[in-house]
Amino acid sequence: MQSQLPQTANFLRQVELNRKLEGEYPLALFERLGEALLSNEGNVTAKLEFGHSVGFPCLKGKVSATLLVECQRCLKPMETQVEGSFKFALLHSEDEFELLPDELEPLLIEGDDQSIIDLVEDELLLSLPMVMTHNEACSSFMTEQEKEIKAEKEAAHPFAALKALKDDLDNKVN
What we know:
Blueprint: E1 8-9, H1 11-16, E2 20-26, H2 31-34, E3 43-53, E4 56-70, E5 77-91, E6 105-108, E7 114-115, H3 116-127, H4 140-156, H5 160-173
Parallel strand pairs: 5-6
Antiparallel strand pairs: 1-7, 2-3, 3-4, 4-5
């Protein structure tokens, strides 16, 4: 099991130390994310790297979690894997935003300590699918819909009639 990460940190101090943090947070810490979940059991894995990039203090990171959500099609519980990554330039004022290259997103630093929890939660919320559904047909209605769509596609094929004739001939010969 990985270690639990701190909830806050002085990001600029972490940059000075070239700090790399890797660990987990319990899902229960993420209140806004919890509103979209059926259960807040489990953990969020985060990997954070503080350093410099193209002349700016930066924070790069990756987050991932397996979340229990409600399928929007069948309304039954399902697990979904959510992953996100980010690369922030740590800035003191909005005036610096214009100087950033496209590869970096701005993160305004206010005060000494910043919330790692809020940053990780924001990234997870942005990584959630717009509509959460099972990958396979999860209801009898969807199974029938998929059969109808497949039949329509086959019938719409320009050579479908010829294939049907050929199949009939092959069946009669055998």
